[in-house]
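Tokens as discussed.
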């Protein structure tokens, strides 16, 4: 008596005040699962299609009533009466129903909302938290948070080209202590920025968006904040970057700080940064189309740091497999809405982990209070999670959920095993 009895979608708002879709899956036994779909600002060219209405009389064209209708009609009709416990079969039905390579007919946002809602309903029916339903007895680790505390690039209106400057509290024995350190550093950083009169306005992900001389100035502020908060850089807390290099890659060159650089120059710059800062991870260090550059980057730096592919892999199992075969990066950023179903997301994670790549579950800049990625992180033993600054409800909802999971499971913290060996 747990077959799917109803699928209902509605238009709601994300953290940027833009519409997104929320989907509920109701089972015949009364169980319900609800999922909200996030939206990105910095998007890879090969991401699946986020469908929008384009009606400029509503939400400046960003409405999702078409998506809502697709869920309430085509998707609902296809899933009614199905059992929710075979996620692969559910997602295969959704993929076949759409029938396009990038999910443009129904919209990846419609498909993902339904996919996640079904999984949540199934876990509710069994009386299990989502991380246990998906991970069984194997999913049993708390991730290192990559806490984005300074924004630039597409996530802010300041002059910083790099998109995210993160603190990585990996040198602790529990997620609770790591998150506390991140919060204390965040507030210490705010005071330092205010005292320096460089601006402490907030970017899309709850991070500060100061106007600084250059990217290294942002790293200097992070080092100062770590130390003034009472922690040791390179021992308790490390640094990470999301460069989002595709945004300043033009005509096969990287236009950065008024200079025109090739891939080798960019890698030289990263090596210089490694000499001066406790950097452990760089995401999207080169453009998504610069595969030759990525090969060189991986050859030169893979033994020294984590090289995360986001735009270049877009959580796509086929693209990721090609990247692994060609020696691209050593870590995968996982964004379920890049690929559009839970099954495809899990497949990408398994492929990455099977190749020895770290996996990092990630939010989007347009987020919601949905905490699915916190559960996916634990379920898949992903070593890290990226969900923004330790502030604003749509960001801390994920961190708070991990605190609850830590309390109820006594699961070990990945921290010292990731960057402190």
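Sequence:
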């Amino acid at each position: 008596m747990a077959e799917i009895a109803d699928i209902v979608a509605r238009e709601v708002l994300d953290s940027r005040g833009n519409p997104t879709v929320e989907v509920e899956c109701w089972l015949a036994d009364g169980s319900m699962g609800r999922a909200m779909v996030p939206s990105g600002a910095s998007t890879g060219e090969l991401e699946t299609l986020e469908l929008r209405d384009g009606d400029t009389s509503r939400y400046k064209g960003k409405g999702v009533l078409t998506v809502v209708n697709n869920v309430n009609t085509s998707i609902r009709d296809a899933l009614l009466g199905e059992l929710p416990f075979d996620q692969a079969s559910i997602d295969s039905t959704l993929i076949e129903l759409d029938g396009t390579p990038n999910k443009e007919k129904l919209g990846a946002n419609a498909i993902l909302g339904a996919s996640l809602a079904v999984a949540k309903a199934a876990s509710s029916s069994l009386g299990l938290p989502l991380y246990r339903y998906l991970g069984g007895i194997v999913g049993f680790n708390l991730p290192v948070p990559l806490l984005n505390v300074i924004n630039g690039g597409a996530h802010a209106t300041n002059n910083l080209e790099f998109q995210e400057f993160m603190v990585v509290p990996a040198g602790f024995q529990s997620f609770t202590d790591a998150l506390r350190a991140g919060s204390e550093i965040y507030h210490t950083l705010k005071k330092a920025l205010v005292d320096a009169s460089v601006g402490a306005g907030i970017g899309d992900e709850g991070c500060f968006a100061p106007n600084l001389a250059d990217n290294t100035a942002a790293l200097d502020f992070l080092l100062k904040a770590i130390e003034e908060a009472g922690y040791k850089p390179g021992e308790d807390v490390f640094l990470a970057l999301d460069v989002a290099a595709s945004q300043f890659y033009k005509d096969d060159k990287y236009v950065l700080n008024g200079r025109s650089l090739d891939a080798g120059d960019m890698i030289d710059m990263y090596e210089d940064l490694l000499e001066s800062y406790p950097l452990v991870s760089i995401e999207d260090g080169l453009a998504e189309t610069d595969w030759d550059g990525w090969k060189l980057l991986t050859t030169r730096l893979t033994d020294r740091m984590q090289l995360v592919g986001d735009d270049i892999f877009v959580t796509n199992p086929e693209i990721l497999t090609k990247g692994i075969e060609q020696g691209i990066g050593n870590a995968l950023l996982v964004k379920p809405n890049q690929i559009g179903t839970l099954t495809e997301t899990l497949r990408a994670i398994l492929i990455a982990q099977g190749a020895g790549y770290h996996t990092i579950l990630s939010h989007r800049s347009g987020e919601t209070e949905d905490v699915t990625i916190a559960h996916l992180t634990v379920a898949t033993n992903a070593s890290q999670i990226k969900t923004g600054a330790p502030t604003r409800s749509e960001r801390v909802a994920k961190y708070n959920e991990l605190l609850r999971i830590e309390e109820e499971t006594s699961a070990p913290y990945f921290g010292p095993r990731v960057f402190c060996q």
